[in-house]
Amino acid sequence: xxxxxxxxxxxxxxxxxxxxxIATWREVARRYGFVEFDGPMLEPVxxxxxxxxxxxxxxxxxxTDKGERHVALRPEMTPTLARMIIARERDFKKPIKWxxxxxxxxxxxxxxGRLREFGQLNCDLIGESSVAAxxxxxxxxxxxxxxxxxxxxxxxxxxxxxxxxxxFLDAHxxxxxxxxxxxxxxxxxxxxxxxxxxxxxxKAFGISLEEVRAFIANPGTHFERFNALAAELDARGLKGxxxxxxxxxxxxxxxxxxxxxxxxxxxxxxxVAGGGRYDNLMSAMSDGKVTLPAIGFGMGDVVLGELIDATxxxxxxxxxxxxxxxxxxxxxVIANExxxxxxxxxxxxxxxxxxxxxxxxxxAKVGKQFQNAEQAGARCAVVIGxxxxxxxxxxxxxxxxxxxxxxxxxxxxxxxSPGFLVS
RNA sequence: GUGGUCGUAGCUCAAUGGUAGAGCUCCAGAUUGUGAUUCUGGCUGUUGCGGGUUCGAGUCCCGUCGAUCACCCCA
Length: 423
Hints:
The chain is α+β, with helices and mostly antiparallel strands and about 425 residues long. About 40% of the residues lie in helices and about 20% in strands. The chain has two domains: about 10-320, Bira Bifunctional Protein, Domain 2 (BirA Bifunctional Protein, domain 2), CATH 3.30.930; about 330-410, Anticodon-binding domain (Rossmann fold, 3-Layer(aba) Sandwich), CATH 3.40.50.800. The chain has helices at about 10-30, 45-50, 80-85, 130-145, 160-170, 175-190, 195-205, 210-215, 225-235, 280-285, 300-310, 310-325, 340-350, 365-375, 410; strands spanning about 35, 40-45, 60-65, 70-75, 95-100, 105, 115-125, 155-160, 240-245, 260-265, 275, 295-300, 330-335, 355-360, 380-385, 390-395, 400-405. Strand 3 (about 60-65) and strand 4 (about 70-75) form a beta hairpin. Helix 4 crosses helix 9 (about 225-235) and helix 11 (about 300-310) crosses helix 12 (about 310-325). Mean pLDDT is about 90; it is low at about 415-423. The structure holds one RNA strand of 75 nucleotides.
């Protein structure tokens, strides 16, 4: 049996990685005062059609259920979030700061950094339109990555502003929203396409490639919002983690102002995170009943995992976290099978105290048991045998061992400290 | 969705069209109350799947499934 293309099995080592990533996301999001929410994994297809106008439907993981409902596995969180906010908008103090880190799905041919099933952090700040909110979100994205042991040497946030491009376009003629979206598509692809291709595409707007290049080369006067954002980020000591990059516009139509994407400095991976302002989405999805400005970003687990692997300091940090979390505290060595009943009592007692305890389920040689203790990452071994009612306590790292009375054992173990063995 | 490359043991990979192999891992023993190293022994294959060419196919051809890279797209 093969697994479905683009889906993953999570063996314990994979699960540990995912747990580490999600736990770190949670910790940093909470540091910023964000609270966790979640929604259904399956939604009516209409939810996604309403927002995107059907363009994305081809990439939806959709099917018809037994009740003849056309449903889709969620490809992103924003529509669900918008529905939830709109339904109970008055119940929440503004600004609303929510995050979630669930699984998403899309039906696309998989390739490096992109699967059909993936985990993604979503952070959204709703009900605040100031540049302070923009700065808060960019700072959050930066601190998220720093929490993984990544530095300004490893990644950079490229920031842009769709409003600046809108002003640029307005100066060259009269265009509707669709025109702006089409124009931004051209800008988005400039970096990848040949100049002639861009030149041709720009003719539809009566704009020359030179004009666009001149705008990008001298953006200072057009990106006032960015300058205010930069001042806020510098005040936090985050200079060096971001840069203005007018060519970043993001693919989605609903972005309105600030947009940003996070890339690895070596530029060998696809975007690690991306987001921006979507001030009109709540209104559009509620037919004007709810009007709330919003800004959010997403961060995928697949690319982030690749960046961590490619960055020694980050990889080491992850390894340490996983090792600490999975190691046993105590391994009970049963040297004399006649004492197994006593060992079981001790196992239960220590587990009741909160220690992570392992022991052999069937008779095994002492040497084998110590080997198992080592592999379990146990910090100490308790040998139960002919010394009973005394036991032998051994610190595995130092190989020191001593004989102690059974009642003394709990006092020799201190679960509060990592090096809990009291000598 | 389009195109290139690749599918051999649990993993990494060999094998001119001629008997499917090695290293690592794993398991056991050397070592019946102590972890490393070492040594010895042992397990695992419809060569992704299905056809075709051939006396003979892991090898060549076609199809298919999967992986991977690029394009498309990117929530």
